[in-house]
Each structure stands twice: as structure tokens, then as C-alpha cells.
Amino acid sequence: MPMAAAEIEDLIKAGIPDARVEITDLAGDGDHYAARVVAPMFKGMPRVRQHQAVYAALGGRMGGVLHALQLTTEAPLEE
């Protein structure tokens, strides 16, 4: 059973509470998503560690109930 975009967003925000999350359903099938996650905790963190933090927030659902996730992560721009 596919995951809803809102559920993905909720899981990421629960694991990274100060994150801004944008989810896009890439294929309209509920199985292929893109996520853009912007979080202050990512500042100075290598991209691979940023992605690991998002995967940890998803609680092992990647590759299972969540089939595909195109992930973009970044720290917010300082103003």
C-alpha cells in the first residue's frame, strides 16, 4: 500500500521538528515522491549525513512501504 504525501511530511517533521518540507508526487501513483527538506540542523553537515537524518526520520520505511524518494536537503540561507 503506497504512503500518502502527508504521512511522509509528518514523519520528517516529527524527526526533524524545525524542518520545512515540500513533498511532490512525481508519478501520481503514491509510490514515487520528491522531497525538499530545509532544516537549520543541516548547517555544516555533509549532504550524505543530511540524507541519513531524513531516512532516520522515516523510520525504515524507505525501500519498503515508501518505494522511491528523490531527496533534496539544505540548510536555510542566512539573512
Summary of the model, kept short:
With 79 residues, this protein is an alpha+beta fold. It is 28% helix and 25% strand. The model has no long low-confidence stretch (mean pLDDT 92).
- Ends distance: 42 Å
The main sheet comes to:
3 strands, mixed
Q: Roughly how many Å is the radius of gyration? A: 12 Å
Q: In the CATH hierarchy, what is the architecture at level 2?
A: 2-Layer Sandwich
Q: What is the ordering of alpha helices and beta strands? A: HEEHE
Helix content: 25-40%
Number of strands: 3
pLDDT average, as an integer?
Answer: 92
Q: Might you state the CATH topology name?
A: GMP Synthetase, Chain A, domain 3
The CATH first-level class comes to: Alpha Beta
Shape: globular
Annotation field: number of helices = 2
Total tally of structural domains = 1
Structural class, by secondary structure, is alpha+beta
Beta-strand residue percentage: 25-35%
Which spans of ≥5 residues are poorly predicted at pLDDT below 50?
none
CATH superfamily: BolA-like
Strand order of the largest sheet: 1-2-3
Description:
It is a single chain. With 79 residues, this protein is an alpha+beta fold. The protein has one domain: GMP Synthetase, Chain A, domain 3 (2-Layer Sandwich), CATH 3.30.300.90. Helices cover 28% and strands 25% of the residues. It is built from 2 helices and 3 strands, in the order αββαβ. The protein has helices spanning 5-15, 47-57, and strands spanning 20-25, 32-38, 68-74. It has a 3-stranded mixed beta sheet with strand order 1-2-3. It is globular, with a radius of gyration of 12 Å. The model has no long low-confidence stretch (mean pLDDT 92).
